[in-house]
Design brief:
Two copies of one chain form a homodimer.
Chain A: H1 7-10, E1 13-25, E2 28-36, E3 45-46, E4 49-51, H2 58-70, E5 77-83, E6 93-102, E7 116-123, H3 134-151, H4 155-158, H5 165-175, H6 182-188, E8 194-200, E9 210-214, H7 216-224
Parallel strand pairs in A: 1-6
Antiparallel strand pairs in A: 1-2, 1-4, 2-3, 2-7, 5-6, 8-9
Chain A binds a DNA duplex (27 and 27 nucleotides) through helix 6.
DNA sequence: GCAAAAGTGTTTGGATTACACCCATGC
DNA sequence: GCATGGGTGTAATCCAAACACTTTTGC
């Protein structure tokens, strides 16, 4: 990999950013991982990340990493936590700040960039040993994601533009590792501002479900008037 | 101030840690601020902070800053957010990680250290213009504190060892800027494991209130058995 | 007795839970 | 017609809000 400045200059202290990219499919939350093509931890699965340039804003570094890997733009990035144990990186003191992004999996076309020999979506419950302290980074980030899923309508960043109410339910069931009652779940979400489409699922061998979208516009309006606050 | 390594070595990139120290008194949450005795922003009020040594763990740097200023030890530190705009520090690229600590104000004897000409507790609603981007750091940290106050029994770190139920109520009223009904508040906290003392307030010119402590031991026990989860 | 705050009980309406049932589609 | 999931109604219960009331202290 080529940096615009000499690699050495990054070290003594160095500051990196790891970007956890989440997606949702088949009732499971997935994480986009790369197989490292360089030492340290060559050949191991890892969270995509990169060093932050001296004149680069953290948010911009996050967007750059996300874009390089997925070609996505305009995705909101959320800061997770910062990890800075002196020994966490074998080559020197690298403090890393974790960010996460929520993506619609069908819009992501991940390609192995200069960092990686392979890129893969892995369902969260199947993620095994990762490079560095990336398992720890994942678990604290997932805890923060769960808090945000409870208090902000971020679930819709993971779902396709048009989704069924059952997909929404499955997302929360997977995130919180719980079984929810269908009728009760629908009563609970009754106050969420949805756009109700006339379309239905196709190619299913049962009664097709109605499709909904989240009404961002109405949501912001309700928020501003303090007439609604998202809670799950 | 003397560093163990040359000051220059810190720069190009540099990594600092700011420590927001909260306390509670007279129904108000306070923040411990210092008046800077050095440029940049000399003479302005700021959140205490310091550079992190290359071989120092972030948590340890936080504890060091807290201890230097307040002489407190054994206080839990909570990570807040990391701030890294390229221009946030006029002398170079300083990325800072904010931590916060909750203290019992009567146990804190803050002394102006080498950093500061003055140290002062200021009620949150009276905090004015601070140095650097410290107002932004304070507001995001306070948002995170509120989330934690809602989901974990951290309020007891701010209250004296023995407190009245009304003090507990005032803490939440101040944090969430709301008026709560006394009878309803007491119903809500009925499940919190308290130690009920035989002592009462003294020197009050009204019926003295009973004193309570938080029963850490019983709390941990209930948590482990999954028989209770703190919610406010 | 009065002021001030401590401390408790009752009622009501809305949310949560458990559960039962009907509906639309593919094969 | 039957398997599969979509979609809805009801009753019991719990919880939160509003409000009223009694108690204990200092002066």
């Amino acid at each position: 990999m080529n940096y615009k400045i000499e690699f050495d200059k990054f070290f003594s202290y160095s500051f990196s950013l790891d970007c956890l990219i989440f997606g949702f499919e088949n009732g499971q939350i997935h994480l986009l991982l790369i197989k490292r093509n360089m030492d340290p931890h060559k050949g191991e699965w890892a969270i995509p990340g990169d060093l932050v340039y001296p004149d680069e804003d953290l948010d911009d570094a996050g967007k750059r990493i996300l874009h390089d890997l997925t070609n996505l733009e305009g995705i909101r990035l959320h800061q997770s936590q910062t990890f800075g144990k002196p020994k966490r990186h074998p080559q020197g003191r690298v403090i890393t700040c974790a960010y996460f992004a929520l993506t619609k999996m069908e819009e992501v076309n991940a390609v192995a960039s200069s960092w990686a020999t392979e890129v893969k979506w892995i369902p969260l419950h199947k993620v095994k040993q990762l490079a560095f302290d990336h398992n720890e980074i994942l678990s604290s980030t997932f805890e923060i994601l769960k808090i945000k899923l409870s208090n902000e309508p971020l679930c819709f960043d993971l779902l396709p533009e048009k989704f069924t109410l059952n997909e929404l339910q499955q997302l929360y069931e997977y995130a919180f590792n719980s079984d929810l009652n269908k009728a009760n779940f629908r009563k609970k979400i009754k106050h969420i501002p949805f756009i109700s489409h006339d379309e239905k699922q196709i190619n299913v061998k049962h009664r097709p479900a109605k499709l909904f979208s989240f009404d961002q516009k109405r949501y912001k309006d309700l928020l501003a008037r303090q007439e609604y606050s998202f809670k799950m």
